[in-house]
Amino acid sequence: QVQLVDSGGGSVQAGGSLKLSCAASGYTYSRDCIGWFRQAPGKERGGVASLGTTGKTYNTDSVKGRFTISRDNTQNTLYLQMNSLKPEDSAMYYCAAAKYPCVIWPMWRTDYNYWGQGTQVTVSS
């Protein structure tokens, strides 16, 4: 049974950093589609960053140069390093995984079968 547990959220001031983690069980991150979504109050859940099976990374323009997605296959853990955080980054962040067929980018919510419970990120000005 696939289970994703995301963690690492918190409250930081603008310009600060956080690193989110997503531990997977019953699932191999090296296969299929994996990534991070976020959802702020009043906004749709949207893709933040994804990692292709070739190792190529994708992200939304608003986080370009600030967020980095990576994985540790030894620990079977997905990460999202977030630097230079802005108040508009405040949201609930969810890691997610999808079985093929799936689109690496853009990220479609309907492709993703497995979700973490969400971890809250709050950035103060």
Outline:
The protein is mostly beta strands. It contains no helices and eleven strands.
Q: What does the model show?
A:
The protein is mostly beta strands and 125 residues long. β7 (67-72) and β8 form a beta hairpin. It has strands spanning 3-7, 10-13, 18-25, 33-39, 46-51, 57-59, 67-72, 77-82, 91-98, 114-115, 119-124. The mean pLDDT is 92.
List keywords for this structure.
125 residues, globular, 0% helix, single chain, 11 strands, 7-stranded mixed β-sheet, mainly beta, 4-stranded antiparallel β-sheet
Structural class: mainly beta
Helix content: under 10%
**Assembly type of the shown chains?**
single chain
Major beta-sheet overview: 7 strands, mixed
The number of E-state strands comes to: 11
Strand content: over 45%
Instruction: Give start-end ranges of low-pLDDT stretches.
Output: none
**Can you tell me the overall shape?**
globular
Q: What's the helix-strand series?
A: EEEEEEEEEEE
Number of helices: 0
What's the Cα radius of gyration?
13 Å
Distance between the termini: 41 Å
Instruction: Calculate the mean pLDDT score and round it.
Output: 92
Layout of SSEs?
Blueprint: E1 3-7, E2 10-13, E3 18-25, E4 33-39, E5 46-51, E6 57-59, E7 67-72, E8 77-82, E9 91-98, E10 114-115, E11 119-124
Parallel strand pairs: 2-11
Antiparallel strand pairs: 1-3, 3-8, 4-5, 4-9, 5-6, 7-8, 9-10, 9-11
